[in-house]
Amino acid sequence: MPVQIPDDSDFSSFKEQCENQDGWTARYNKGGVTVWCRDGEESHAVQKLKASIGLPSFCKDVTAETLYDVLHDTSYRKKWDTNMIETFDIGRLTVNADVGYYSWKCPSPLKNRDFITLRSWLPLGSDYLIINYSVKHPQYPPKKDYVRAVSLQTGYLIQSNGVSCCTLYYLTQVDPKGSLPKWVVNKVSQFVAPKAMKKIYKASQKYPEWKRKHNPNLKPWMFPEQNTLPCISLADLCLQRADSLENIDESGLSEEKGHISDED
Q: Are the CB atoms for 87 and 190 separated by under 8 Å?
């Protein structure tokens, strides 16, 4: 199956998955943040998970456009994403699609993971969507000290609820390439996902002031004429199939005491 850039039907399907609660079970619901897991996938290595933040106690002083900018701005991400090890853009495909690299810290003693993903975005009325999935790029093979994970589908839906109020949905289905311990799965839904949602919100509160001091007019995700990435062809990419990557067994590893994977 060739690599394809998401079209309107892909964005519509993603939005529907975010908004529809049928077939989902809430695993966390506190302080304006909810985390759901897909029914029947509790024992699966590849689970679908989604989270939202946006009740009156949160996101009441952040516009949808600001939140959208925060999720795009890789320079600013280094300021707030403490799980991130490295991220960079590789090249652009169209005015609203590119390919990039992202690596992140896993809870010790698990190995760290990384991705190569095709990302596409779409402002749609009062909604903003960003979605990605894993691809292979010939110049960026798996690294020695990382496990190359596979994003089957990951993304964000931001919905405006007024002048300075919005709701953020995050949905992901990732193959971590390995048998993970149960404590890792529990930690993602009960700790990591809620913490990450709150962290994005706090980062969005501080972004306008930060942006005023750091290339305030530079937003290539909004103004494609500002994009200086090299052009790459879809023909240079292929789908990253999970079964073509090394599968490691980390199911017997115990959590290291005192280690928190998503610190403030």
A: no
SS3 state of residue 229: coil
pLDDT digits (tens, 9 = 90+) for 163-179: 788 899 999 988 877 66
Report, in this order, helix, strand and coil percent for the chain, each rounded to 5.
25, 35, 40
Please name the residue that has the structure tokens 């240079």.
Answer: 236
- Tens of pLDDT along 110-162? 889 999 999 999 998 889 999 999 999 999 999 988 989 999 999 999 999 87
Q: Look up residue 141 and give its two tokens.
A: 């093979």
Q: What is the pTM of this model?
A: 0.88
Burial pattern 26-59, b for ≥16 Cβ within 10 A else e, equals ebbeeebbbbbbbeeeeeebebbbbbbbbeeebb
Phi/psi at 11 (5° precision): -65, -40
